[in-house]
């Protein structure tokens, strides 16, 4: 692989494969669909609330990190199921660890969203 020369065609193929991965995760994984809907609502809310550039950066980094974790989790699950479709304690633990990564990312993303939006929501009710 190191001896391969740079080519636009191979770079475009890489992008095609990456976009296919996004299509797979959104079409087959329920949690990814939930993340997509919530992320869309957060982006709309951010636009509506006129959040600062710093708040946009924080939210977009969290959303991106959460999606990246979901993609890695899905990849690990697919690979583990391919290696052994049978129930195996270590495979279960690997899958649980990957799922925990998504959970941590989701919690941090929710906390960041609360830090950005909760003061605005509370001030609207005053």
UniProtKB/TrEMBL annotation:
Q: How does it sit in the membrane?
A: Multi-pass membrane protein
UniProt entry keywords in alphabetical sequence: ATP-binding, Cell membrane, Kinase, Lipid biosynthesis, Lipid metabolism, Membrane, Nucleotide-binding, Phospholipid biosynthesis, Phospholipid metabolism, Transferase, Transmembrane, Transmembrane helix
CDD domains cross-referenced by the UniProt entry: UDPK_IM_like
Instruction: Please give the Gene Ontology molecular function terms for this protein.
Output: kinase activity
Under the heading InterPro entries, the entry gives: DAGK, DAGK_sf, UDPK
Parts of the chain that traverse the membrane: 32-50, 56-76, 97-118
**Assigned protein family:** Belongs to the bacterial diacylglycerol kinase family.
Recorded protein name is: Diacylglycerol kinase
- What is the native source organism of this protein? Flavihumibacter stibioxidans
Q: What is the lineage of its organism?
A: Bacteria, Pseudomonadati, Bacteroidota, Chitinophagia, Chitinophagales
């Amino acid at each position: 692989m190191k001896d391969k020369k740079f080519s636009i065609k191979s770079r475009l193929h890489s992008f095609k494969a990456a976009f296919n991965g996004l299509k797979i995760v959104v079409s087959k994984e329920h949690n990814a669909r939930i993340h997509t809907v919530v992320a869309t609502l957060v982006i709309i809310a951010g636009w509506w609330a006129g959040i600062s550039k710093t708040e946009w950066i924080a939210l977009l980094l969290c959303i991106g990190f959460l999606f990246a974790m979901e993609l890695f989790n899905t990849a690990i699950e697919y690979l583990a199921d391919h290696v052994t479709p049978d129930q195996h304690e270590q495979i279960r633990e690997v899958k649980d660890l990957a799922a925990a990564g998504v959970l941590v990312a989701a919690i941090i993303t929710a906390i960041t969203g609360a830090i950005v939006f909760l003061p605005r929501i509370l001030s609207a009710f005053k």
